[in-house]
Amino acid sequence: MNLEDDPTEIFIEPNLYPRLANYVPSATRQGADALMQLLKQKEELYSIEEKEMGQIDEIIGEYLRGKVSINEIHRISGAVLNSQTQVFSKEQIGKVEDIVPSAIAISTNVDYFNCNTLQDNRFESQSDEQFLPQPPLLRSEQETKNKILVADEKYPSLNNHTMFISLSDKLFDRYCDFFFAPHYTKVIWSTHKVVYVFTHISSQVSLYYDIDLKESLSNGMTGGHSIISTTIITKTKIFVPIVPEMYEYFNMRNKGKLEFYVRFNTLSS
Question: What pTM was estimated for this model as a whole?
Fold first, then answer.
C-alpha cells in the first residue's frame, strides 16, 4: 500500500500531531530559522520580481501582531500593483476523492477511530484555540492539472471542506517548502479580495496569498476567520480549502472562466 493513501496516516496527522508538536524540531525557533534560510535561497532567483510588495507585507505583518484591522488589509492591498494572473476554467475541476482516496476510507470508518465528534466540533467552533497547526496531506505521487477540487460530500478527515483551490505555480516553485511544516490558516475576504494567511507552527514565519478578484463577491460580503488547515500537496500543486461563504463564487460549473490576480510573500516576526 502507498503510505500516502493509508487511512491511518490521515487520522494520525491532524489528531495526534498537535499534542506532540513541542517535541518536533520544525515547531521550534530553530526550525523556523532553518525554513527561512531555505526560502531565502529561492528568493534570490526571484530578486527582480514583485518589488511592489513592501506595503502589503508591512500591513499584513501589523495584522498578525494585532495592530490593524481586516478592513485596513483590504484597503492597502487594493492599492498594490498586480503581479500574476490566474485563469480557471470549468474543464479544470477535479474530484478530491481522486487525489485523497484515503479520505473516503477513514470517513466511512470514522467510528472505529472514535474521532467523528472531535472533527465536527473543531470545524464548527470559531475559537482560535480550536484551530491548531496541522501538517499537510502529502500526495507527491499524484499529478493533476486541475485547479479546483470538489468533494462529493463532507468528509470529517478533510475537516468537512468540500472545495479546494490550487495556489499559483509560481508560489509552488518558490515556497512549497513552507507548506511541508504544520501551519495555521486564516482567510479574509471583502468585495474584490480574498487573502489567505498561513503561519508556521513556530509562529515565527507567515506567508500571505492575496487574490484580487475581477468580479466582486455577491452582496458585498466581508469577513474573515481561522480555519482548520487542510492543505493538500501533490506533485506540482498546493491546494487549500475554499471557505463555504465562497463556494458559489468559485463554482465553475456556473461559469465558463474565472480570472483574477494574485500576489504572495513571506513575513518573519
Answer: 0.73
77-109 pLDDT, tens digit per residue, is: 655 544 567 888 888 899 999 998 877 766 555
Cβ distance 38 to 162 under 8 Å?
no
Asked whether 6 and 102 are in contact (CB, 8 A), the reply is yes
Which residue's entry shows cell 458559489? 248
Residue 106 CB-density burial (10 A; 0-12 exposed, 13-18 middle, 19+ buried): buried
Strands of the 137-139 sheet, one edge to the other: 93-95, 148-150, 163-166, 238-241, 232-234, 137-139
Q: Which positions ≥6 away from 68 have C-beta within 8 Å?
A: 59, 62
Spatial separation of the C-alpha atoms in residues 2 and 242, rounded to whole Å: 27
Q: Which residues are bridge partners to 227 per DSSP?
A: 185
How many domains does the chain fold into? 1
Exposure string of 253-269, with b = 16+ CB inside 10 Å and e = fewer, is eeeeebebbbbbbbbee
- Apex 94 CA angle, 224 and 195, nearest 5: 20
The parent domain of residue 232 ranges over 3-268
